[in-house]
Design goal:
Length: 268
Amino acid sequence: MNILTILLGSIIVGVAYNLFLIPHGILSSGLSGVAIMVGLITPMNTGVINFLLNLPLLVVGVKKLGKQFIGYTILSVVLISVSLYMIPIYQVSTEPILSSLFGGVLTGLGIGLIFRASASSGGFDIIAMLLTKKKDFPLGALLSAMNGVVVIASGFIFNWDAALNTMIAIYATGKVIDTIHTNHIKLTLMIITAKGEAVKEKLISNVYRGVTVMKGEGAYSGEGRSVLITVITRYQLTDVKTMIHEADPEAFVNITETVEVIGSFHKS
């Protein structure tokens, strides 16, 4: 299911770029925006450029960010690059603003699906995650700063209308991703279960995260329950939900966005 989701999301991203953004010289967010920029000013295909730009990051990421996450991300990058190469560039709309808005929405839909499959589309996500492993910088701020460089470069290389349309596309992409998949790097899970030991062992064996276990009691039933609390990254959410369901299909799980974590939190 994850592979099919990544396939669908990657094709949607390719459609958004080649039918809406690239025909109007509009860039996307992330390293793909850089690939589009290079593709517009050189005869090289955007898909080939996208793959070449991501390749060294993926090689480093294999050692630093976990094999499953990077494995899915490699699949995503390859499929997006193939989609960009295979899908013909065609101008669906003659209106740049409509194209930037609709292209941004489609890009957000595709990337959101990729996130839900426990992967990323590569590029700036990988760079930011590698940087935050060294320094405790907020991931969102790093991504915004790098996307800002793409927008400014678009203005100088093309024109400022293209830069403003790029900002519209990036904004629309972010909003749709937020709707499909939480955009916060850290999430707090409170798990209430009658099978506390099984859930704990499942999490500890498969997720590099600390788990706090407390004893609880049902207010109406009076039955004992285990309350497990853990903090994870957004990329682990889909996998962790699957693990909890496998250990206890009837577990109650409350997922909340975490503004800040103070103390030991490994970002792998």
